[in-house]
Amino acid sequence: MLTFAPNPRYRIYTNRNSYLFLLEDLLLRKRSPEDRKEIEILEKELCSRFGTEYAVCVPQNRVGVYLTVKALIKPGQEVIMSPYTIVDITNMVISAGGRPVFADVDRQTCNISVAEVERLINSNTGAVLITHLHGLAAEAHRIKEICDRFNVPLIEDCAQAFGTKEQGKPVGAIGDAGVFSFGMYKNINTWLGGAVISNRQDVIEKIRTELASFAYPPLPYLLKKVKSGLFADIATNPLVFKLFTYWIFRFGFLNDIEFINKIVRIELDASRKDKLPESYKSQFVPFQARLALSQLDKIDRDSKVRIENGLTYYEGLKDIKELIIPPDRRDFSHIYTYFPIQYAKRDELLKFMMKHCRDVAAQHYHNNADLPAFKEFYRDCPNARHVSEELIFLPTYPRYSRSEVEKNIAVIRKYFGLN
Ligand SMILES: *Cc1c(COP(=O)(O)O)cnc(C)c1O
Question: What's the CA gap between 84 and 387, in Å, rounded?
């Protein structure tokens, strides 16, 4: 069992420090909104890293998107955005008073199509919101140029792209505001959290004012996250994973056992929110800032490993005509947060890989443009529809070994009858 079991499809970036910092905070600290020193240090670090005037920590990326959209648009204005993102990003746009206008993605990059943005932008547009998905820069410079022509602000969702650069400039600092995530599955993990960076004082002031009204401290919601993080940490511990977890999930997947498969599926609730949920109105707290600071240094080193893994997949899969794979980039314009591949018979390939003792997963992001919850904003986005039905993630994370990458490639080649 130990020899056949693969590395898990993901690991989260918690370590002993994470739990120590949390424990220390719970046991020793008086928490008070005035105690902002560590948060200020993190915000300064982010400013110097990204070369922006301002940075403000937020309780979650999605809340950052909400606050930023609200600060930038007039109620009722249109927000051009990719339909291929998490449901809650669309919800945040709606909650902030915007009307989502879904612009289809490019099939290969899965990022918003520049041509579509250009076609859809007009005098009703309040903002353009782009997502740098999977760590791949989304042509922010070209889109910024279009936005400038119409005097429309550009917001960058960098939840999966901390450390990505486009033409040498860090993403997030190209548009009017960039929003990052320090959520549980991101390359900085403080369980919950994020930051908005910007050069615009007016935007940052509005965000800070609204944030000040949020609850402090946010412990119950945060502790719930810590609990599920701990569960993920234990389940993907190499020994536990190879002895138990993998075989349980493999059995569930190969035999279509819903209650097992459900555990790893995301976004089971794809409902519409017209208002920011009360549970989101909380604050990023000092120990989380300390945790983020302790992880900043290793980001680029980790990205280099991911890029190497990504390029290994690229070289190993590029001749397979049936697959759509991302471009090969060596200039940090793709940090390969994942290596996404698209294939029309996704489930068949996934089953084949599981049978051959690999652990990889389908991406379950919805095409928001097709969701019943957002039918008021329906637009036909065929590329996003295909991507949502065909995308598989291949793991690239730093602790994933090179030989695992090579085994994934070998099994995929075998499926297509190549060697
Ligand atoms: C994770 C993610 C988010 C949400 O981040 P939170 O910090 O959990 O709110 C938003 N957009 C994308 C593309 C993401 O991957």
Answer: 8
